[in-house]
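Format notes (please read before filing issues)

Several people have asked whether sequences and C-alpha cells are stored in separate files. They are not. Every record keeps both together, in the order shown below: the sequence lines, then the C-alpha cell lines. Line labels are part of the format and must not be stripped during preprocessing.
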Amino acid sequence: EVKRFMAHYGLNLNKKGIIPDHISVLFEFMERLIQKAISCFSENEREDYEKTLEIQQQFFNNYIEPWIDKFLEQVKKGNPLPFYASVAEYTKQFITQEKILLK
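Then the structure lines:
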C-alpha cells in the first residue's frame, strides 16, 4: 500500500533490495513532499502548495505517525551507541515538529 502511494506521487521503488516501508524510504518521501511544498510556496503556486500539504499530511498520518513514537522508544530502550541515540533524538524532534505543522 505504501509503495503504491509513493509511486502514485512520484517515488519509484522498483530497484531490487528497496524496502518501501523502511524508515529511511518513508523519510525520503517526506523530504520530497516538503521540498515540493517549499517550491510551490516560493513560486506562488497556491493550489499545488495546498495539494502537496494534503498529501504530506495524509502520508504522515497513515504511514509514519501510527508507529514512530513506539519505534523511537524501542531504540532508546536498546541502549544504542551515541550516534544512533542522537539520530533517534533528532528524529523525535522532527516528528514533534511535523505533528504540530501538519495540524
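For reference, the curators noted about this record: The first helix runs from residue 2 to 8. The two ends are 24 Å apart (CA to CA).
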